UniProtKB/TrEMBL annotation, chain A:
Coiled coil: none annotated. It comes from the Bacteria. The keyword Membrane applies. The chain crosses the membrane at residues 26-48, 54-75, 148-171, 200-220, 232-253. InterPro entries: ABC-2_transporter-like. Pfam families: ABC2_membrane_6. This is ABC-2 type transport system permease protein. Keywords: Membrane, Transmembrane, Transmembrane helix.
TrEMBL record, chain B:
PANTHER family: INTEGRAL MEMBRANE PROTEIN (PTHR36832:SF2), SLR1174 PROTEIN-RELATED (PTHR36832). InterPro entries: ABC-2_transporter-like (IPR010390). The lineage of its organism: Bacteria, Bacillati, Actinomycetota, Actinomycetes, Streptosporangiales. The keyword Lipid metabolism does not apply. The chain crosses the membrane at residues 44-66, 78-96, 132-154, 160-179, 199-221, 251-272. It comes from the Bacteria. Keywords: Membrane, Transmembrane, Transmembrane helix. It comes from Streptosporangium saharense. This is ABC-2 type transport system permease protein.
Length: 265, 281
C-alpha cells in the first residue's frame, strides 16, 4: 500500500515537472477548468433568481450540496479521472507497455499525464463551499459530518472512475458510455435528489450508491426530513456504501486486466 | 512564405464552376461516410446525451413546478427545450472540435490545404455539413425519442413550424461551423490552441442556451446572450421548434450571423495564407 502511494507520488511529480515545461497551456487549462465549472454555479444562481427554493431547498443549501459533490468529484477526478481514458491506451497499444513495467498498471493509468490543471476544479469547489458553509449556520453537533462526507464522496467517485476504467476493457469502441456514470453522477449529486423522480432516487440509493456522496449525509447536516421517507439510519451508511463500491471496483478492475488481450498491433 | 498564384486559381474556378458544386457535394458525402465509421462512438454519445437530458429535465421540471409559465414556456415546453438542446450537441458540435482543421494546423499539413485549388473554408464547411447530417441521425434522434417516451415532448404545431425549424437547424449548423472554423484557424497565430478551445467551449455552452434557456437570464445578461451568435445554435432553433419566435426574424438573425462569421472566416483564411511558413525539407 505505502509502496503504491509512493509510486503514485513519484510519477505524479514526474508528470508535473514535464508539464511545467510549457507553463502557458498549463495556466490556460487550469483557468479553463475553473471557469467551465463556474458555469454550473451561474446556472444555480440564475435558477434562484426566479425562485426562492428548488424542490424544498434554498440557495445556500443547494450551493452546499453543489460544493460537497463538486469537491469530492474534483479530488477523485484529479487522482483517478484519467482511468476512463484506458480505451485510448488499449487502442494505441501503450497499455501493453504499462503492463510490463515494474509498477502497478492501475497507478500508471491513473497518474498518466498528471498536470496542474487538475487543480482548477478543486479550487472552484473549495470557493463555492467556503461561501455556502457560513451561510448555513451549522452547529458543531452536525457540522462534524462534513469532512467524512466529502471523504466518502471521494471514495465513491474514485470507485466509479475505476469501474469506468474496467468497463473500457469491454467498451473499447464506445468509451463515452462511461461518462454517463462518472460525469453524470457528478451532475446528479449537484442538486438535491428531491428534484429527481422517485424511481431514479431509489436507483441511485440502492443500486449505484450516488445518494451517499452527499445527499443522505447532507440530510443529517442540514437536519432535514427525507422527502422520500427513507429510513433515518441511511444518513450514516456512507462509509459502508463507499467501501462496498470500492471493493466491487477493485474486483472489476482485476477481472478486466485478467481477461485483457492486446490488440497485438 | 507561400506565394499563391492568383491567376491560376481564378482560371481554375472559371473552368470548373459547375464541377465545384459537385465537388463540395461529394466532400459532404465523404464527410457523412467518414463519420459513419464511428458508429458505436456515436451511439455512446447518444446514450450519454440522453442520460444528461434526463438529469437536466428534472431540474427544469422542479423550477417550472415552482414557477409555472416562467419565461413564456410551460412545463412541457421547458422539458422539450432541454431535450432539443441535448439533441443539438452532436450536429452543432457544442462541446467544440469536430473539424480536422485544428489538427492540421498543429501538424502543419494546413500548408498543403491552403495551396489546393479549392477553398479551404468551403471544403471544411462541406465536410462539416456531412458530419452534422450523420450525427443528426445517430446522436439527435435517439435522445429525443428517449425524452418523448419518458416525459412526452411537444411537437411543432404545423408544417410551417416544421419547415422553419429545419431551416433554423441547418442555419445553426452553418453558424456553428463559422465559429469553430475561426477557433481552429486561430491556431495559426497562437501556437497552442487549447486556450482558445476552452474559451470557445465556455462561451458556446453558456451563451447558446445549453446551460439554461436564455430567456431565464436576467436583464442585460439576457439581452446580450440573445444578440450573440451562439444563441443561433440552440435557443433560436429550439424557439422555432416550439413556435415561440417570429419565423422571419429568427431565420434572419441566424443568416446574418452565418454570413458574418463566414466572411470573417474568409478574411482569416487569406490572412493565414500569408502567415503560414512552410519549413523546407
Amino acid at each position: 500500500m505505502a509502496d503504491t502511494v509512493r509510486t503514485y507520488l513519484l510519477l505524479a511529480w514526474t508528470w508535473l515537472r514535464a508539464s511545467a515545461q510549457y507553463p502557458g497551456p498549463l495556466i490556460t487549462m487550469a483557468v479553463g477548468a475553473f471557469a467551465i465549472n463556474m458555469l454550473d454555479v451561474v446556472a444555480i444562481w440564475v435558477i434562484f433568481e426566479h425562485t426562492p427554493s428548488l424542490a424544498g431547498f434554498g440557495l445556500a443549501e443547494v450551493m452546499f450540496l453543489y460544493g460537497t459533490s463538486s469537491l469530492s468529484f474534483a479530488v477523485s477526478d484529479m487522482l483517478f479521472g484519467n482511468l476512463d481514458r484506458l480505451s485510448q491506451h488499449i487502442r494505441t497499444g501503450s497499455f501493453d507497455a504499462m503492463l510490463i513495467r515494474p509498477a502497478s498498471a492501475f497507478v500508471q493509468m491513473a497518474v498518466d499525464r498528471f498536470s496542474v490543471h487538475r487543480f482548477g476544479r478543486i479550487t472552484q469547489a473549495v470557493i463555492v463551499l467556503a461561501i455556502a458553509l457560513p451561510r448555513l449556520d451549522l452547529p458543531w453537533s452536525r457540522a462534524w459530518a462534513v469532512p467524512p462526507m466529502i471523504l466518502c464522496g471521494i471514495v465513491i467517485f474514485s470507485s466509479l472512475f475505476a469501474l469506468a476504467g474496467a468497463a473500457q476493457f469491454l467498451l473499447t469502441d464506445a468509451p463515452e458510455v462511461a461518462n454517463a456514470f462518472t460525469y453524470g453522477g457528478s451532475t446528479l449529486t449537484q442538486y438535491p435528489l428531491s428534484v429527481y423522480g422517485r424511481d431514479l432516487v431509489r436507483g441511485v440509493t440502492f443500486v449505484v450508491p450516488l445518494a451517499f456522496v452527499n445527499w443522505q449525509p447532507a440530510l443529517f447536516v442540514l437536519d432535514r426530513p427525507d422527502p422520500l421517507g427513507l429510513p433515518y439510519w441511511l444518513r450514516f451508511v456512507s462509509p459502508l456504501a463507499a467501501l462496498t463500491l470500492a471493493a466491487v471496483a477493485a474486483l472489476a478492475w482485476r477481472a478486466g486486466v485478467r481477461r485483457y488481450r492486446s490488440t497485438g498491433s | 512564405m507561400i506565394t499563391t498564384r492568383g491567376d491560376d486559381r481564378g482560371s481554375f474556378r472559371r473552368r470548373f464552376r459547375g464541377g465545384l458544386i459537385l465537388l463540395y457535394l461529394r466532400i459532404a458525402w465523404y464527410g457523412f461516410r467518414r463519420h459513419s465509421a464511428y458508429r458505436s462512438a456515436a451511439f455512446a454519445g447518444a446514450f450519454t446525451n440522453a442520460v444528461f437530458g434526463i438529469l437536466r429535465a428534472y431540474v427544469l421540471i422542479a423550477l417550472w413546478n415552482a414557477r409555472p409559465g416562467l419565461a413564456g414556456y410551460d412545463l412541457a415546453d421547458a422539458v422539450t427545450f432541454c431535450f432539443l438542446s441535448q439533441a443539438f450537441i452532436g450536429p452543432m458540435q457544442l462541446f467544440g472540435g469536430g473539424l480536422e482543421l485544428s489538427g492540421r494546423v498543429r501538424s502543419g499539413d494546413v500548408a498543403v490545404d491552403l495551396v489546393r485549388p479549392a477553398s479551404l473554408q468551403l471544403w471544411s464547411l462541406a465536410d462539416d455539413v456531412g458530419r452534422a447530417a450523420y450525427l443528426f441521425l445517430l446522436r439527435s434522434l435517439p435522445p429525443t425519442a428517449v425524452g418523448a417516451a419518458l416525459f412526452g415532448l411537444v411537437l411543432p404545431s404545423g408544417p410551417a413550424a416544421w419547415l422553419s425549424f429545419t431551416a433554423g437547424l441547418a442555419l445553426g449548423v452553418v453558424v456553428s461551423f463559422g465559429w469553430r472554423y475561426l477557433v481552429a484557424l486561430s491556431a495559426c497565430w497562437f501556437m497552442d490552441d487549447r486556450g482558445m478551445q476552452s474559451l470557445s467551449l465556455i462561451l458556446t455552452l453558456f451563451f447558446s442556451g445549453m446551460v439554461l434557456p436564455l430567456n431565464l437570464f436576467p436583464g442585460w445578461l439576457g439581452d446580450l446572450a440573445r444578440a450573440l451568435p451562439w444563441s443561433a445554435m440552440v435557443q433560436v432553433p429550439a424557439d422555432l421548434y416550439l413556435g415561440k419566435r417570429d419565423i422571419l426574424d429568427a431565420l434572419g438573425f441566424q443568416a446574418a450571423w452565418a454570413v458574418a462569421l463566414l466572411a470573417l472566416g474568409a478574411l482569416a483564411t487569406s490572412a493565414a495564407r500569408r502567415k503560414v511558413v512552410i519549413q523546407g525539407g
